[in-house]
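Usage example:
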Amino acid sequence: MKKQSSNAEMEMLKCITEKFTRHPDQLNRLSEADAEIISFKHRTSDFLILKIDGLYEELQQGLYEDPYLIGWMSITVTISDVAAVGANPFGVLMALQLPDTFLKDKRWYSFFLSGINDACAEYGVYILGGDTNSGSALSVTTSAAATIDEGKPMMRSGIQAGDLLYSTGKPGLGNAFAFSRFFDKKPDVVYQPKARLKESKVIKKFATACIDTSDGLFPALSVLSEINHIGFSLQQDTANFVNIHAKNICASAKLPFWIMLAGPHGDYELLFTIKPIDKDKFEEACHDASIDFIEIGQVNSDQKIRFISENNQIECGTADIANLFLEANSDVKKYFDLLMKQHIIWHKKNK
Amino acid sequence: MKKQSSNAEMEMLKCITEKFTRHPDQLNRLSEADAEIISFKHRTSDFLILKIDGLYEELQQGLYEDPYLIGWMSITVTISDVAAVGANPFGVLMALQLPDTFLKDKRWYSFFLSGINDACAEYGVYILGGDTNSGSALSVTTSAAATIDEGKPMMRSGIQAGDLLYSTGKPGLGNAFAFSRFFDKKPDVVYQPKARLKESKVIKKFATACIDTSDGLFPALSVLSEINHIGFSLQQDTANFVNIHAKNICASAKLPFWIMLAGPHGDYELLFTIKPIDKDKFEEACHDASIDFIEIGQVNSDQKIRFISENNQIECGTADIANLFLEANSDVKKYFDLLMKQHIIWHKKNK
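Running the assembly step on the lines above writes:
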């Protein structure tokens, strides 16, 4: 007679999830219900915020290989969007496509879980549930739930000409990291962006609109331009506000600075607009809350993007830079060639 | 001068989603916010229900090829879990990994969208948002949000020995369909299961526990057994309650009936338990609401599953059948061999 064995799939699920802390408001234990049940008795939010996002292309292209970073980013990409609407996330659902090799590699899996757990702890969220498929290629999809506990959500719409453009940090780290992965492994670019949740609580009191730079600065500007039928002037030479890693790479590889802001790999900063009349109050509130910010430009009524790079005064359509990655069919090397070609065109025009 | 072009990614998103109806309570239009914003002012639910589920293995193995079915099942797999907890779903987020070939095939894509739209209309849910990646293999992950507008959610726990076991329909269609896809294309098995939302509203008033049969009958029984530390006796010969398509296949291919209940491909029926004292009231409520149900067994205090197939009285561990698919390393042909081998062992034992 065969020994009574337990359900192998439930055992596997237990192994995969045993390191996750349960949300105190979650009613069901692991496997105890077909869906996740969260007590909502004490929540009084007027808004429920939901977001789904996935890591797939970043893994396929080899941009993320470190299992800790993959775990960290799985949570961060989705929570960053929650931060951009000014919401308080409480939980994340996770769908995994996991090749057996990864699951059997205990070291890999343990670092992956640590990345997830550290990100959850950083953002005060819990893994509520998930779905695991064995697959030929690794992919992670996360879905976050959040509430707005005070005031209203931020949107990408609401910008008016004259508004001031701010970022929570100097843009360009995402592309600097991508460059160090794809073209020159020498520069040691530390990449572990933090979703700007803390910052968003202050920003939402003042911002007319907000978006995260998950696809880089220019793609974010392009989206804001199109939705609000406006344009932007970046107020200083890009050299003055590009991230230090990006700046160093540009200096040593002789690249124009604006290329580090072209995307598509993101910085996960918040990019937002403030009415000029709120400028002082906003900056004071940031100082009080020890929040970094940088003013990088202003909103124009015509749908153009204007900026200065390598002493070139550049004016282009709001989607021109954002569209180059798709024009290159998402081929990283072809994309880089298109960026350099564009730079030469602008440079010649300015002579 | 280049003509002002629009953001290509936003255009693509518009094409992908233009056929979806927006939820009346959703504040943001398409692309208007980083996350989806749903007004929750008028909702008074004490529980928020969330679920993530994916179609991946079914697509990789070629089980689903018809784009309409893929769209329909993308929504149904997740809503079926929402039904099993007795909740009212209102929205779905969808993450796509879509090979370019599918996106460019307008006929394929239009049927895929129709399947999604028809399922959303059937269940009264809306696509709230999503994420699209171009990928080498098709996969669809959906995440549903729901509320409990009356009473409490159903869980998989709460069963006691003596409870009666019911299903919303005769089990076995999922495996019959899989058999017709993998082994013998002759039998025309129509497979488009409907998540049992309407049924769950009545069931939740009486059930001590509930689970959907998304992995087939025996795997669902195995999960209920393990969580509740009980077992089941199926009360009739399996020939009496197996789905008609499954029955016909068994007859013509000379297969034992129980194999059609072994999983792993599901029927998406609800499987639930009722206290004997509530039997009459429950069945009357079902008749009043024109809801189909079938009583298929009862709960035992010892952790065994007992059933009759081809005149064999079978008693096995609660996970024995459920574990066979993993034992076969998810290889369909190997799995089928394991099932037949198991049948021969039981058959000899009974002689």
